[in-house]
Every structure is written in structure tokens, then in C-alpha cells.
Backbone:
């Protein structure tokens, strides 16, 4: 069901006025400052933590002395990822914040991702030795200390001037696997340098094969061991929330957009290729594309965006190395189908033959736990780290990842599951 945001309450207006005067407000080079309080009044994205309409008078929850709880003034003060979302709402320019928050249509799918996670409960077992926790996961022979992955998200300089470099340093600091978007605002070589090792690379194919070939060759030469092929956006999607937020933002941001419009400048990964904006849609792409890719690279290939067991089986038949269950964070089809609900049929079809990754609405350690319990090897997050990035840059991303790791550890201890391997179908329930 669609969440309709009401116009700002007096509390929210006071809160935004306070923020306007605070040093938290960062600006993006080349852009006029954001204008807090200009949130659009249509179906709105703030905050996504609220999945059940109608919004309470104070959308931030009960607070006995009235008004909103104070915003964290530094990354370390954030208690959960929604604290970061509240800060990012004030620091990221409106159109860019709308780009983070948007799903499609009336946000049914984005809200569905959260609602389905919230419907699952954890079945806690007692008197298990949880004095040592093991959260390690091995993907393609490489061991990671945590199953929490940085999902590929484009245009990160739109949220903080250091963009993908800040994310790379934060992910590296705690050993999180990071996947870099094709529409990154920073070239892969620079991100790899910042991280100190090659990242995984997310590929948007183009309808011009020579462009795709050039991009794949470039990331192969940069040492990226894995290509994550995103297949859930063949031809655009209906992002109404983005449109609403963009209409409140009259800045002209020539550092990122072509003069006179919203169209982006050519992204770094397409520079030096024959890329034209019309190439970005791939409505004609079929499973044959996997064979084409195999001919030009020996990198591992992960397919991102599957939602059905039928497609999981086809992926296995086409020799895919891992499957990523995703609906693009509710930004592709407006089906309302939650990824956590699609996960079991896919995990069953895959039957541990290749790794399974899931994303979509994972906001707490307990959500990560539920993803593992339903058969994922690893769980990726998108918006939470973008909120951290937009709020405080690298320390914000570090804090978001720290919060999620800590919450996962707490959940594992309380559920009596000392290792990821000990989390299974019987660790959760519904109803
Ligand atoms: C601002 C933003 C940009 C994104 N850009 C990409 C992208 O370039 N490539 C891609 O495969 N997915 C992209 N995604 C989808 C994420 O990889 C991921 O599937 C999704 O964010 C997970 O849902 P969550 O945000 O609810 O955690 C983007 C998501 C957001 C929020």
C-alpha cells in the first residue's frame, strides 16, 4: 500500500529550521545549497523506515518532551541507520535525496521489501554457547569477515563530494565486499586505489556492444575479479518520487548535469567509448548475452536482479557463478513482490550450487539474519550506506556498517546461533 507523506508538521518545520542553521549542511561543488523543508507533498520517501501509513503526528516516534529527537551531530552518535537517513535528508540536495529514496509508482515494492522483513520473526534458542561468533563468509574462494555487502549504487558524488572514494575506504576499513556501479561518479581505477584492491564491478550492458566490450575490457584490466550483471532494468522505470523531489529543486548543477537539463554528463566509465545516452536501454537483451560476455572475459559473472526460481534455473543453465536476488531496492518493477519472499524459491532451486546474494530493504542486523535464514550467503545494502555517506562522508558509511555488524552480532547471540552456518530455516518464523 502506498505511503502518503503529509505536509511538514510544525515539529518538523522547527526541526528543519534548526538544521538549516547547523553546520551539518554540506554542499556539493557547483551546486547551490540544499533547501531544507522543501520536501514534496505527494507520495513521499521520508523516512523509508516508516513502512506503515498513516504517519504519526511526530513521524520520528514518541518523544516525551515534544519535538523530534535531536539529529546526531557526528557519525558516531547515530544509533541506527534511520538516524543517518534523517541527517541525509537535510544534507543531500533535494533532487539527489529523491534519487536515493525513490522506488517506482506509489512505492509499493520498496515498502513491500520492508513489510515482508517485518512480518518474519526470529525463533530464539536458549542455552547455546555464543561466547564466540563466526560471521565469516567465503565467496569464490575469498573469505570475508562479514556477510554484509555494499550494493552497487551510482552517482555517489551527488551525495557527498568524496563519493565512491569515501565508500571504498569505509568498506575496506572493516573488510566489506564492495560492488562498484557502472554509473559510478568516480572511475574504477581511482576506486581500486582508494580501496587498495580491486572491487567487484556491476555492469549495465548497453545496446551498443562495442561500448560494453570496452567497459568490460577496462575493468578486467583494472583487476576486478567479478562482473555483476544487472538485468532488472531493461528500459527505464517509473520513478515518481524522484520526479516529485526534483521538482522542488531548482539548482543548476553543471558539475554533474548537462547545462539546461537533468541529463547527466557522460559517466567516467563510458568516457573514451562510443557511448550515447540512447545506448543505456537494453530491451533486447536475453540469456544469450551471458555467452557473449563469456567470450570476452574470464571474470566470474554474477547475475543481479532475479526474482523467480525459473530465472534462477536458467541462470544455472547458462553457467552463472552466483545469483543476486534483487528488485533494485523497489526501483524496477512495481510488482510489490518482496525480495525476502522471492529468496526461498531461488535458494531451493540453486541448492547451494552457487552463492546466493540478496538485497532490498535490509536495515537492521536482524534483517540480515533473516536473509541468511532464508538461504542467502550474503546480504547487500544500498540506501543505508548512501544515507551515511550523504550525512557524514566516510565516517558515516563506516558507522552504518558498524551498526549493522553490531546488530547482526547481537541478534546471533540472542537467537543462539553462533555462526552463519547455524542460522537456518528453523531460526525464523511467520505469523
Ligand atoms: C541511489 C541508488 C542508486 C543505485 N544504482 C544502482 C546501479 O547503478 N546499479 C545497480 O545494479 N543497482 C543500483 N541500485 C540498486 C542497489 O544496488 C540495490 O539493489 C538496492 O539499493 C538494494 O535495496 P536497498 O536500497 O533497500 O538496500 C541503486 C540503488 C539506489 C538506492
Residues:
Amino acid at each position: 500500500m502506498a505511503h502518503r507523506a503529509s505536509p511538514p508538521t510544525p515539529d518538523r518545520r522547527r526541526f528543519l529550521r534548526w538544521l538549516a542553521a547547523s553546520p551539518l549542511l554540506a554542499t556539493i561543488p557547483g551546486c547551490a545549497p540544499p533547501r531544507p523543508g522543501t520536501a514534496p507533498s505527494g507520495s513521499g520517501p521520508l523516512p523509508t523506515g516508516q513502512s506503515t501509513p498513516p504517519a504519526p503526528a511526530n513521524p520520528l516516534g514518541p518523544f516525551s518532551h515534544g519535538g523530534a529527537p535531536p539529529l546526531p551531530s557526528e557519525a558516531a552518535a547515530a544509533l541506527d541507520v534511520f538516524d543517518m537517513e534523517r541527517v541525509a535528508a537535510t544534507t543531500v540536495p533535494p533532487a539527489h535525496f529523491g534519487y536515493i529514496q525513490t522506488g517506482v509508482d506509489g512505492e509499493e515494492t520498496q515498502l513491500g521489501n520492508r513489510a515482508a522483513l517485518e512480518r518474519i520473526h526470529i525463533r530464539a534458542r536458549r542455552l547455546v554457547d555464543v561466547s564466540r561468533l563466526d560471521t565469516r563468509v567465503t565467496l569464490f574462494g575469498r573469505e570475508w569477515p562479514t556477510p554484509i555487502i555494499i550494493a552497487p549504487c551510482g552517482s555517489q558524488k551527488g551525495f557527498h563530494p568524496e563519493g565512491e572514494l569515501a565508500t571504498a575506504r569505509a568498506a575496506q576499513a572493516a573488510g566489506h565486499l564492495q560492488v562498484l556501479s557502472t554509473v559510478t561518479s568516480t572511475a574504477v581505477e581511482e576506486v581500486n586505489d582508494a580501496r587498495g584492491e580491486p572491487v567487484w564491478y556491476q555492469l549495465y550492458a548497453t545496446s551498443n556492444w562495442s561500448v560494453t566490450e570496452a567497459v568490460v575490457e577496462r575493468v578486467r584490466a583494472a583487476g576486478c575479479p567479478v562482473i555483476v550483471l544487472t538485468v532488472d532494468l531493461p528500459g527505464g522505470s517509473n520513478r515518481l518520487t524522484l520526479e516529485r523531489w526534483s521538482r522542488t529543486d531548482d539548482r543548476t548543477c553543471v558539475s554533474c548535469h548537462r547545462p539546461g537539463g537533468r541529463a547527466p554528463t557522460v559517466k567516467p566509465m563510458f568516457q573514451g567509448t562510443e557511448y550515447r545516452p540512447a545506448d543505456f536501454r537494453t530491451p533486447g537483451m536475453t540469456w544469450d548475452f551471458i555467452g557473449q560476455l563469456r567470450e570476452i572475459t574470464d571474470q566470474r559473472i554474477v547475475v543481479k536482479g532475479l526474482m523467480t526460481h525459473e530465472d534462477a534455473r536458467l541462470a544455472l543453465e547458462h553457467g552463472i557463478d552466483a545469483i543476486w536476488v534483487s528488485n533494485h531496492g523497489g526501483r524496477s518493477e512495481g510488482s510489490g513482490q518482496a525480495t525476502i519472499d522471492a529468496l526461498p524459491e531461488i535458494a531451493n532451486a540453486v541448492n547451494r550450487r552457487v552463492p546466493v546474494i540478496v538485497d532490498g530493504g535490509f536495515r537492521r542486523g536482524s534483517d540480515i539474519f533473516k536473509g541468511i535464514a532464508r538461504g542467502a550467503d550474503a546480504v547487500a545494502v544500498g540506501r543505508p550506506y548512501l544515507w551515511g555517506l550523504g550525512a557524514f562522508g566516510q565516517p558515516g558509511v563506516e558507522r552504518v556498517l558498524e551498526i549493522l555488524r553490531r546488530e547482526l552480532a547481537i541478534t546471533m547471540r540472542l537467537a543462539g546461533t553462533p555462526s552463519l552456518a547455524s542460522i537456518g530455516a528453523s531460526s525464523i518464523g511467520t505469523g
